[in-house]
Amino acid sequence: MHSQLSPETTVVENLQQAETYLAQGKLALAQETCQQVLAGLLDYAPGYKIQGNISLAMGKIEEAMAWYTKALSVQPDWAEVHANMGSLYAMEKQWQLAIVSYQKAIALKPNIAGFYRNLAKIWQVVGKPELAAECSYQVLNLDPESATVSECLSLGKTLFDYQKLTEAIACYGRAIELNPNLFKAYHLLGDALIIQGSLDEGIRYYQKAVKLQPKTWIAYQKLGKALLEKGDFSEAVMAFQQAIEINPNSIWSYPKLGLGLMKLKNWDEAINAYRKAIELNPNHPNNYYLLGKILEQEKKWDEAIAIYKQGMGNFPRESKLARKLE
Fold first, then answer.
1. How far apart are CA 305 and CA 321, in angstroms?
2. Closest C-alpha among 123, 112, 116, 67 to residue 90
3. Which range of residues forms the domain containing residue 241?
4. Would the N or C end of the chain have less CB density within 10 A of its end CB?
5. pLDDT digits (tens, 9 = 90+) for 199-254
6. Where does a domain end: 76, 104, 129?
7. What pLDDT shows up at residue 14?
8. End position of a domain, from candidates 76, 100, 128
9. What is the DSSP letter of 11?
10. Backbone angles phi, psi at 99, to 5 degrees
């Protein structure tokens, strides 16, 4: 069967027919139709591009590349053709050429999510995960509906690890939009906001995390640390107490609880907290130092000296403890 081109039809219509054949998988007819159009034209970039698509569908990579190159020689600012070239280079594992082609496509049309998506895959292959994450973030901005909750969380964590906090916060926020009951997203968003310096906002997200999973000690621990930093010592103490109630052997909660109690001048409870901290984790010199200071505050001199000596026994080079025994 041969294609028949009507002299009354326009070039555009004939090329559309070639594309229809291509979509239907009728590759021979698509090629014949496109070639007949190109036979009567010189330097017609759309025809070169379509013929490149047909050659690619036939598995003729080099031929497709030649047609795309001809299209770009006529219309060098055609972003989609640069992207097609990028895909061909990627098929051939010519990664640097693929990267350059996609970067050209993005420079010409920076609002096409697919360009960034494919470039992200290439950056991942060549061992550039940070650049891959940056491209994936652009995909999320341009096509937010395409990302799943788990993809938002994973991308947010990667961006967080590279200290791209604003972008990580946006990813976690999108995850919460998709699933408002997702504990992990609130927890991670609170982390990013705290590091960014948005203390009050971070606390709000930690509080939401606690409401979602009130039996998770780490949520109370992080909430307590943020409240301690804010100077809300009473609330911080309650958060650490909740963490300890859930996880009585948390080596991280007792020192923070002790510090909060010190700020409240609740000396007896602070002493108990630091004694428990040392019992659970004798390998932290600051716990000996702070417990000794509280005992001094309470004029329990012998107990303070005993704690400093105990600390020096474990950390003989710890200058803060040594000075207390001079």
1. 10
2. 123
3. 222-326
4. C
5. 999 999 999 999 999 999 999 999 999 999 999 999 999 999 999 999 999 999 99
6. 76
7. 85
8. 76
9. H
10. -60, -50
* Average confidence (pLDDT) over 75-84: 97
In a domain, 241, yes or no: yes
Question: Which pairs from 13-20 meet CB under 8 Å and 24+ separation?
Answer: 15/46, 15/47, 15/50, 18/50, 18/54, 19/50, 19/53
Asked if residue 312 lies in contact with residue 322, where contact means CB atoms within 8 angstroms, the answer is yes
Predicted TM-score (pTM) of the model is 0.84
Q: pLDDT tens for residues 297-320? A: 999 999 989 998 998 888 888 888
Residues 6+ apart with CB under 8 A from 299: none
Burial class (CB in 10 A: 0-12, 13-18, 19+), 265: exposed
Q: What is the C-alpha to C-alpha distance for residues 148 and 282, in angstroms, rounded to an integer? A: 44
| Distant-in-sequence, close-in-space partners of 276: CB < 8 Å, separation ≥ 6 | 254
One-letter amino acid for residue 128 of the chain: K
Query: Rounded to the nearest 5 degrees, what angle is found at the Cα of 183, between the Cα atoms of 181 and 184?
Result: 130
How many whole angstroms separate alpha carbon 139 and alpha carbon 98? 18
**Average pLDDT, integer, range 62-91:** 96
**Rounded mean pLDDT of 14-41?**
90
Does residue 34 fall inside a structural domain? yes
Residue 251: strand, helix, or coil = coil
Which amino acid is residue 15, in one-letter code?
L
Percent pLDDT > 70 in the chain is 97
